[in-house]
Amino acid sequence: AAALDAWRPQVGGARGFSTMLAEVSGIVDERLVTRVAAKPEIFVFVFGGHRARDLAADNRQRGGGTDEPSRASSGLSRVITSGAPPSPESPREIAPLVALQKILRDGPELGVYFGGWWDSYTSATRILDRNMLREFGMRVALAMSRDDSRNLIEEADAGRLRPHRALLWDDDHIGRLQKFIPFAPTSEAWLRTLQKALTARET
Question: Is 137 a residue whose pLDDT tops 80?
């Protein structure tokens, strides 16, 4: 339990998504200069990336997206940091997709990690290009078309999945898929309860 004392979860919504990405991207830039990695580790979790309006709008401006509007989602992003949270100072202006690309490309070796969930492969590719998808070293596929399965995990196996089953693809174990039973993400209420509990330990 003592190992959890330093962890400070921050729960954000769709309106603060771009700001959060810019803050974390700024931390990556700082660590690239100093080459100091890992501490504090930062984990960014996004539930409902297909509803990220800022990313979709940025992608349309760059000519890579669709004109279909995306709905906002409260509790879109989840950030959990070990140690001090990102600086409250206003982050420099940076396009959301550029910030995300930097986090995906340079973050892991500097102790900054990103995990995202989209409702379909098509939704993900409206925002993420092939180069960005390659940065995801671990991918989970639920039931989908055989073509989407091949594009996401390099095998058509997800096209044969039964309900409530998923496949884990790991870049470190190419050619070996692990089947498992997925669980729903934790609720925002649970995350806020965790945040209060961890904050209380520091006082």
Answer: yes
